[in-house]
């Protein structure tokens, strides 16, 4: 590397360490996305992060995703950049893509609580969307049954699973056995499921 290039990289590194960019008051700090990166990586990644935040601030979500994707490709092991990309994807309701990204990043940074929290948030968004879609089908039992048998949420909150069990009860019968074949994730829902199954059987004259 020439002396001129070393001087340029040193100048850029100093610039990046002192300059902050904002989106709705958010600050990109050296301790976040620059950690673990070489001076050259910081040099090539920074413009994408700057353009990404500016795009999101201007509600240009596709452009923001493109810029953060490029930043992530240039620094694939940097967890904060992965978080920026995941947040951009979630802004576009691409929750499963964000989940896949965060799972891969957690495999490299297992102790990062911010990654774990972001993963739980994205999963919860998918679950909420599934529950809302399922509940909208209550008036058409056949469609609801098809939806419930084709979707298998990974519940992280007891109340969400409670809502799911209630939906299973709506279309459960002796033939499909949707309700009694479901295994609750949360112990708090075990008794509720049993009570609901008894009620369903009683209402259907199967007791």
List the topology elements.
Blueprint: H1 3-18, E1 22-23, E2 26-27, H2 30-34, H3 39-57, H4 61-74, H5 79-91, H6 95-108, H7 113-135, H8 141-150, H9 158-171, H10 178-181, H11 190-203
Helix pairs in contact: 1-3, 3-4, 4-5, 5-6, 5-7, 6-7, 7-9, 8-9, 9-11
Keywords:
about 210 residues; 2 domains; Serine Threonine Protein Phosphatase 5, Tetratricopeptide repeat; mainly alpha; disordered N terminus; elongated; two-stranded antiparallel sheet
Calculate Rg over CA atoms: 24 Å
Beta fraction: under 5%
Mean pLDDT across the residues is 85
* SS elements, strand count: 2
User: Any idea of the CATH class of the largest domain?
Assistant: Mainly Alpha
CATH-defined fold name of the largest domain: Serine Threonine Protein Phosphatase 5, Tetratricopeptide repeat
Low-confidence stretches: 3-31
Q: Any idea how many domains? A: 2
Helix fraction bin:
over 70%
Largest sheet: 2 strands, antiparallel
Q: In CATH terms, what is the architecture of the largest domain? A: Alpha Horseshoe
SSE string, helices as H and strands as E = HEEHHHHHHHHHH
Structural class: mainly alpha
Sheet with most strands: strand arrangement:
1-2
Span between termini: 83 Å
Overall geometry = elongated
Query: Treating each run of at least 4 consecutive H or I residues as one helix, how many helices?
Result: 11
Summarize the structure.
Helix content is 71%, strand content 2%. It has 207 residues and is mainly alpha-helical. The chain has two domains: 3-122, Alpha Horseshoe (Serine Threonine Protein Phosphatase 5, Tetratricopeptide repeat), CATH 1.25.40; 136-203, no CATH class.
């Amino acid at each position: 590397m020439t002396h001129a290039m070393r001087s340029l990289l040193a100048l850029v590194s100093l610039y990046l360490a002192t300059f902050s960019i904002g989106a709705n008051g958010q600050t990109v700090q050296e301790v976040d996305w620059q950690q673990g990166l070489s001076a050259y990586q910081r040099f090539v990644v920074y413009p994408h992060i700057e353009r990404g935040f500016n795009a999101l601030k201007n509600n240009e979500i596709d452009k923001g995703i493109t810029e953060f994707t490029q930043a992530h490709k240039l620094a694939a092991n940097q967890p904060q950049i992965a978080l920026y990309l995941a947040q951009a994807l979630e802004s576009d309701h691409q929750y499963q893509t964000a989940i896949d990204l965060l799972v891969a990043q957690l495999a490299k940074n297992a102790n990062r609580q911010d990654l774990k929290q972001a993963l739980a948030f994205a999963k919860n968004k998918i679950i909420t969307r599934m529950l809302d879609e399922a509940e909208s089908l209550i008036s058409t039992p056949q469609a609801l049954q098809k939806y419930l048998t084709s979707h298998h949420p990974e519940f992280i909150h007891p109340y969400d699973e409670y809502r799911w069990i209630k939906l299973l009860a709506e279309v459960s019968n002796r033939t499909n056995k949707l309700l009694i074949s479901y295994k609750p994730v949360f112990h708090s829902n075990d008794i509720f499921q049993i009570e609901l199954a008894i009620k369903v059987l009683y209402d259907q004259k199967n007791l």
